[in-house]
Amino acid sequence: MSTPRVGEEEDEERHRQRKLEEALEVKSLRRIVSAYLNYPDASEEDVKRYERSYKKLPPTHKALLSHYPLKFQRLRWCISRNAYFIFNMLQAFEPPLDMSQDVHIFEDSHLQNSPNDHFFVGERNACSLQSTSTSGSLCFTKNDQACSGEGGNVICKSPNGANNNEEMEIEGHNEAITTRHPPGLHPPGFKYNEEIDKYGGNDVTDSNGKGNVSSSFQEWLDPSFQLNVPLVDVDKVRCIIRNIVRDWAAEGKKERDQCYKPILEELNALFPNREKDSPPSCLVPGAGLGRLALEISCRGFICQGNEFSYHMMICSSFILNQTQTAGEWTIYPWIHSNCNSLSDGDQLRPVSIPDIHPASAGITEGFSMCGGDFVEVYSDPSQVGVWDVVVTCFFIDTAHNIIEYIEIISKILKDGGVWINMGPLLYHFADMYGQDEMSIELSLEDLKRVALQYGFQFEKENTIETTYATNPRSMMQNRYFAAFWTMRKKSAAREEHSTS
Taking the mean position of all CA atoms in its chain, how far away is CA 99? Predict the structure, then answer.
């Protein structure tokens, strides 16, 4: 007789757990959005710090730097332009969850320790949940969902096979993408004080309502929904701005040629006769801001990028789905460091983005970005033997357990499938002092030995010198001697024959 009550209690507990998980996701997403929104204030504090140091100089020294007050004003102007891009990006963002819900009703130790995003190591990145597509649909997927191919389209699906309900249809891949691009968005009280635009860029809206103020301010961007975030969160925003140059600016072409070009050439050599009716499938884990995945798609592959960073996904969605023309935006990516600058002009120089219009790039139908943790998403049984190629670029060292990455890559590749890798072994969790983070840090020799145990055989291997999101005009250039290889997964029949 007590069974119904027990069942009701279990249902209530499951419902509570789902609400708790959703509240955790909302709080995490609010923190990420708040980091973007706090960018202008945090940057202003930096400029004020520069000004305080300048004012401490003795008069004779200060006279030698009489141009500094103007430089500080120019810095503020550049910050305002970066903020203009950020706020337009956030205005276009459509959260997968109700951002206005009260997360405090479930406030407990779990919420206090809610995950924010992955860690940025030096100039490297990683982490996320939103999914984008420049062709087909934009969809959102949680970590327990897998992204799979169906016909010619790659869509995000839950394990039970039901399509995710939260989708936004987008127009064809060879035409301008339908957008909700707002003319501008600025938080209350945000002001632009410069009279003259010395560097070019987009029109600026002032705080008195003059100019292109958007009339459709997103409710969840209201200050009452924002969180106080540590400065390290805002540092991630600055890192994103630098990463935009790597993927979406003409200035980043040299670095893209170093990292992406060898991969694209290898794909072309391995798949010379790509048919439009049956294009090969390619997965790009750690896709970042999406340029490599887009370039692969443009070369006749059904390509899916996977990214774990919500910071990255919000930005890549905006560039891929909302951009209307090449060079539509102007940012100032190098203003946040006064070190190793050849001149103020170098530090304050503008960068136009994107260098191409993504929707007009000629992508192959089925191109998508799938959000979520690589291990959780692609461990799903539906992913076994799905992909012709897996491309990893500056990705495999983001693992807690790199052996698990290798195992999953082997499982999701078809027999005879190819794994192309480019990158160093700067393990992201190697120096997490004081935190009990698992980190398996293999040498390249050990990594290759493990790969052989998972059925891979080497077809090509060399070393490529490259940088990562580096200011090309900086006096300091961090260089990697990145491992580049092509491995092929042996077919099951061939492997059995070789062991018999």
Answer: 21
What torsion do the CA atoms of 464, 470, 474, 476 make, to the nearest 10 degrees?
-60
Per-residue model confidence as pLDDT tens digits over 39-90: 999 999 999 999 999 999 999 999 999 999 999 999 999 999 999 999 999 9
The distance of Cα 103 from the centroid of its chain, to the nearest Å, equals 26
Amino acid at 339: C
For residues 485 and 419, what is the distance between their CA atoms, to the nearest angstrom?
A: 8
> What is the span of the domain harbouring residue 94?
3-499
Rounded Cα distance between 154 and 387, Å, is 12
Q: What are the structure tokens assigned to 46, written together? A: 């930096």
Distance CA 167, CA 165 (A): 6
The pLDDT assigned to 217 comes to 57
In DSSP terms, 137 is beta-bridged to 169
Element (H, E) at 268: helix 253-270
Helix, strand, coil % over all residues of the chain, rounded to 5: 40, 15, 45
C-alpha–C-alpha distance, residues 162 and 159, integer Å = 8
Q: Rounded to whole angstroms, how far apart are CA atoms 355 and 249? A: 5
Tokens of 61: 């020294």
* Phi/psi of residue 489, nearest 5 degrees: -80, 125
Count of alpha carbons within 13 angstroms of residue 466, beta-carbon side: 26
Omega before residue 280 within 30° of 0, cis: no
Beta strands 413-423 and 387-393, pairing class: parallel
**pLDDT band, very low/low/confident/very high, at 9 (cuts 50, 70, 90):** confident
Rounded to two decimals, the pTM is 0.80
Peptide bond before residue 262 is cis, with ω within 30 degrees of 0: no
Amino acid at 28: S
Contact, 155 vs 148, CB < 8 A? yes
Spatial CB neighbours of 437, under 8 Å, sequence gap ≥ 6: 400, 429
3-state SS of 45-91?
Answer: HHHHHHHHHHHCCCHHHHHHCCCHHHHHHHHHHHHHHHHHHHHHHHH
Backbone angles phi, psi at 33, to 5 degrees: -60, -40
Residue whose structure tokens are 């891949």: 173
The pair of three-digit structure tokens given for residue 74, joined into one six-digit string: 């120019």
% residues pLDDT > 70 (the chain): 73
351: β partners: 331
The answer to whether 32 and 310 are in contact (CB under 8 A) is yes
* CATH number of the domain enclosing 248: 3.40.50.150
* Angle at the Cα of 100 from the Cα atoms of 97 and 101, rounded to 5 degrees: 80
Q: How many domains does the chain have?
A: 1
> Between 253-270 and 291-298, two packed helices, what is the crossing angle to 10 degrees?
40
Over residues 429-451, mean pLDDT: 91
Contact 32, 314 (CB under 8 A): yes
Which amino acid is residue 57, in one-letter code?
L
